[in-house]
């Protein structure tokens, strides 16, 4: 009788401890969780990933022993309760089949419905809060619904891990969780051996400010463009770059017509999506993210790791990475004029002052945000729960 690959995997690995990583996209796994896969495999875990399949399934080329389950019922920003019930049932079916020793959930829907599915099978789970996203930025009914769902599902997790301090404090204030059940780390980590200072092969005569990230209004992209316009009308020695892709499934995604207008008006240069961002960072003088709220943005830590000054918002997940006046500047959110003034402030710095800012950022990235440090912290929490 033929035996499926999954059945053979489960049979061969039944003696070892199994850990499942569950996320809303394989893109999330590829970009943010490979450090955990590396760590858990090194610790002798059998690793299973549960996420909707996309082009980033290529991670399995490096980790062929990882078993991947395609999550088909997850609609990231949908509000249809029947769809979410189907997601719960699908997760429950998968968890029953793989019977992991512990499950790590990432992002809102896996955190909520995955936790409920795990509890129904008496499985241990951890919710990892990777940023609060659209519901908590915009508030209203959606925030109330998500908060209520977290209050219900939150009691069934062994632990909540937050990627910044302020998200943890907010969940405690909302009485979603207790202090004893929560812990904060510093983001998902950045590979400081990959992202490191490198020679600028595209030396520009003008000072380059670069926005890197998904093209969402919540990332402060409109404020970036408005500030660029203000500064560009005063000076001709600056360039403003935008790098990233439009996230069609996010309600905060930008209007394509507006992006076209920004390019046609020559306010910014749009480079589109760049898979290996290091060369862009190397050719930039300052990395800018005027976001409304973050976990701890990888854009920021990648720039820091490569020795670049950062301009970002005075908000959760940003001020934890940037010390104002040390490795960059913090600016009031949704304030284009203040952002423009900060661009001008940066332009007034001496070259050695800019260089020192970048060097301080690099040291901070290596000491606090290195992905090996973050993976070890999460690994310690997992072992504590299992033991």
Describe the structure.
This protein is 43% helix and 16% strand. By secondary structure, the protein is α/β, with parallel strands linked by helices. It has two domains: 5-189 and 371-386, Glycogen Phosphorylase B (Rossmann fold, 3-Layer(aba) Sandwich), CATH 3.40.50; 207-369, 3-Layer(aba) Sandwich (Rossmann fold), CATH 3.40.50.2000. The strands form two sheets. The protein has a seven-stranded parallel sheet with strand order 3-2-1-4-5-6-7, with helices on both faces. A six-stranded parallel sheet has the order 10-9-8-11-12-13, with helices on both faces. Strand 4, helix 5 (108-120) and strand 5 (124-129) form a beta-alpha-beta unit. The longest helix has 19 residues, at 351-369. It starts with a helix and ends with a helix.
Structural key phrases:
single chain; 387 residues; alpha/beta; Rossmann fold; 2 domains; seven-stranded parallel β-sheet; six-stranded parallel β-sheet; 15 helices; 13 strands
The name CATH uses for the topology of the largest domain is Rossmann fold
Mean pLDDT: 93
* Strand segment count: 13
CATH structural class of the largest domain: Alpha Beta
Strand-residue proportion: 15-25%
Helix content, binned percent: 40-55%
How would you classify the helix and strand content by structural class? alpha/beta
Low-confidence stretches: none
Strand order of the largest sheet: 3-2-1-4-5-6-7
CATH superfamily of the largest domain: Glycogen Phosphorylase B
Task: Please report the number of helical segments.
Answer: 15
User: Cα distance, first to last residue?
Assistant: 39 Å
Largest sheet: 7 strands, parallel
